[in-house]
Amino acid sequence: MKYAFNQISLIQYILIIFETQVGIGVLSLPRDLAKAVGTDGWISIILGWILSTLVSLIIIQIMNKNPESTVFELLSQYFGKWVGNGVSVLWILYAAYAASVVMFSTVYLVKLWIVPGMREFILMLLLIIPIYIITKHGIRVIGLFAELVLLVSMWMPFLLLYALKDTHWQFLLPIGKEGLFPILSTVKSTILSFLGFEMAFILYPFLKDKKSASKGIIIANSLSMIIFIMVTVVSFVRFSPDEINDYIYPTLNLLKLIQLPFLERLEIIFLSVYLFTLFMTIIPYLYAAVLGASQLVGMEDHRTMLRVVMCLWLILPFFYLPSASQINDMGKSWGIAGTYVAYMLPIFLWIYGLLFHPARKEHKQ
């Protein structure tokens, strides 16, 4: 096995996908849903979970036929060297862009909520150091870090229960008041929140128990759905339908409402610890990008490409500092790219594999 040294367990496989999905979206999802469909947004989350899980299972079916190949090797096998490498470049750019969007969002969040006086270059440097240390060691260490993130952040969902004081459950009623069409149209927003399951294209060759890959990805998507629904419903019953639109990150504003006798500014502590989860959105996408770029140019070690990306991230703050609206626009463009890469590409590869790839193999033989 090519990836025997870097094998990951089923638990690590589940956690990497789950933590990649939760990331930045859980902070702003309630507002996005409230603007689009009101308090019926939680229904759209369930529909988004169904769609993303179906596509996830298609990815596993594709990888079952190519258990020792990452998506970059798979594309070359399916379409030949030149076309396969061209599509691989698009996949690499998508992963690098996703990591960069979350990186800039993290810098913006930390500067806005924790250290408003610190320069972006210093923040970027401080964030890059742990990200580089973890990513350079490969998927095995990323899996171990995912387990650490779970242990560090297990208390966070329960903290939101404190925000249930002075809630108004009638805000959720009547269910379906916006009608079926608005709910269905908002599914697009929720399926983008589930982006991260496409990491199965990268993780599958490293998974020890490949027979459990389907079960693992269903569990990962389901955990994400539970977190999304929990945060969204708590936000909906704590804030009025009009009030929630005033907050960019309703989840953090929920925490501002929690008052403990021994602690103030709970959202700062929450966000400081939540950085670990944000790292687990950045790192898998970053690793996918540098692994693909390394394989594309014939390098066995991904660390050279990783250093190139780190240097670009350090230089960027001197030339480009995105505002809140620009970060929001970057997130939307990432979502559009994710629609093609995470949802449409697997369906196309699955159909192509069923119809054309067997004939291609027979022709070669």
Question: What report would you give on this structure?
Answer:
This protein is mainly α. α6 crosses α13, α7 packs antiparallel against α13 and α9 crosses α15. The longest helix is centred in the N-terminal third of the chain and has 33 residues. It is globular and about 60 Å long. The model has no long low-confidence stretch (mean pLDDT 85).
Give structural attributes.
365 residues, mainly alpha, 16 helices, globular
Rounded mean pLDDT is 85
The number of distinct helices, counting runs of at least 4 residues, comes to: 16
The outline comes out as: globular
**What amount of the residues lies in strands?**
under 5%
The gist of it:
With 365 residues, the chain is an all-alpha fold. It contains 16 helices and no strands.
Fold topology:
Layout: H1 10-22, H2 25-37, H3 41-64, H4 71-79, H5 81-113, H6 120-136, H7 139-153, H8 156-159, H9 180-193, H10 200-203, H11 213-238, H12 250-256, H13 266-297, H14 303-319, H15 324-355, H16 357-364
Helix pairs in contact: 1-7, 1-11, 1-13, 2-9, 2-11, 3-9, 3-11, 3-15, 4-5, 5-6, 5-13, 5-15, 6-13, 6-14, 7-13, 9-15, 12-13, 13-14
